Amino acid sequence: MSLPAKDIKYTKNKIDEAAVNILVVDDNHGNVELLDALLSSRGYAIFKAYNGEDALKMAEDIHPHLILLDVMMPKMDGYEVCRRLKANHTTKFIPVIMLTALSSIDDKVEGIEAGADDFISKPFQKPELLARARSLIRVRNLLEELEDARNVIFSLATALDFNDPYTHGHSQRVSELAVRLAAFLGLSQPEQHGIRDAGLLHDIGKIATDKGVLHKPGALNGMEYEHVKQHPVVGERICSPLNFAKPLLPIIRSHHERFNGAGYPDGLTGDNIPLGARIISIVDLYDALTSARPYRQGMSQDVALEVMKIEAGKGYWDKEILHSFVATLKAPSKYTA
Fold first, then answer.
1. What does the DSSP 8-state code read for residue 337?
2. DSSP assignment string, 190-211
3. Which of 31, 122, 123, 285 could crosslink 26 through cysteines, CB 3.0-4.6 Å?
4. Rounded Cα gap, residues 4 and 7, in angstroms
């Protein structure tokens, strides 16, 4: 395997986290050394790969802030390397600048279709390459900040589940089952990912619910029930400042709506309830029925589904989605994202 600049062996534990790492990929050693000299003089830590296979491995290992990628390489060209980088969930957000002597529109279009973030023709102008590199590194840093905010909100949702032994793992189970149902219904991959995230966050508003009410062993009184009913609205407010969560807000807010209008907080009916919320509401109830509570044991799958079918007959649930959910439970899961 090719070594990074200055023959420093790399591992995930030894990489300087404070440095800005750039991976240079080119089968021409002279081109690699030229870029090394230019970029390292600006303070960047340079890593080198001389073929596509090494580039893919190193990208996963060092997770660079930027990849400078040659197009014309033997065995695996830059287009294929870029496609694989962008298809891998661990490397898809690493910005890629493709460097090539090819200059036709078709070549550039192929680069863009492969997922390249920028395209610079050789011979390049040093100020232009440095400016574009700085720009994409800034974008990468902003994405990392957004990912940090995303991770914080998901950690809060997980902590909420851990806080109650009777709901431990509830949001994770709802998320996984809801994705299976969404896939069974034929929703697209982006829609499935949204359902997954909404499932994880649907109950985050309960972080503001009184714990004595949440853990009460008996039935809630009217005031307590009204208090609990605020959690979808609170969850929407918690998530609303986050750009990634904006498509999820209608699902978080409406996952306790009922098909006949008997739900909350808005009393929506039928198809006025977002599809994602109808999916989450059915899976949410199923997990609640099959999980133990302080005041009852969890039901078996068959008993829980019979209860849900009876309630669907009274207009509480979207019957078509419920029927699909029953079929989903009998079908093997094909969701792997």
1. -
2. HHHHHHHHHHHHTTGGGGGS-H
3. 31
4. 6
Residues 6+ apart with CB under 8 A from 236: 205, 249, 252, 253
pTM (two decimals): 0.59
Q: Sketch out the chain's domains with CATH numbers.
A: 5-144 (3.40.50.2300), 163-330 (1.10.3210.10)
Residue 69: strand, helix, or coil: strand
C-alpha 37/C-alpha 27 separation (Å) is 17
> Which among 46, 50, 63, 34 has a CA at the least distance from the CA of 1?
50
Reading the chain (337 residues) residue by residue, the pLDDT tens digits are 444 444 333 433 344 445 789 999 999 999 999 999 999 999 999 999 999 999 999 999 988 999 999 988 988 999 999 999 999 888 888 999 988 876 667 777 777 788 888 888 888 888 888 998 888 888 887 767 666 666 667 776 766 676 665 567 888 899 999 999 999 999 999 899 999 999 999 999 888 888 778 777 778 888 988 998 999 999 999 888 787 889 999 999 999 999 999 999 999 999 999 999 999 999 999 999 998 776 678 899 999 999 999 999 899 999 999 999 999 998 766 554 4
H-type helices in 91-248, by residue range? 105-113, 126-162, 170-184, 189-201, 211-214, 222-228, 231-239
| Strand order from edge to edge, sheet including 45-49 | 45-49, 21-25, 66-70, 96-100, 118-121
The one-letter amino acid at 134: R
- The Cα–Cα gap between 226 and 305 comes to 27
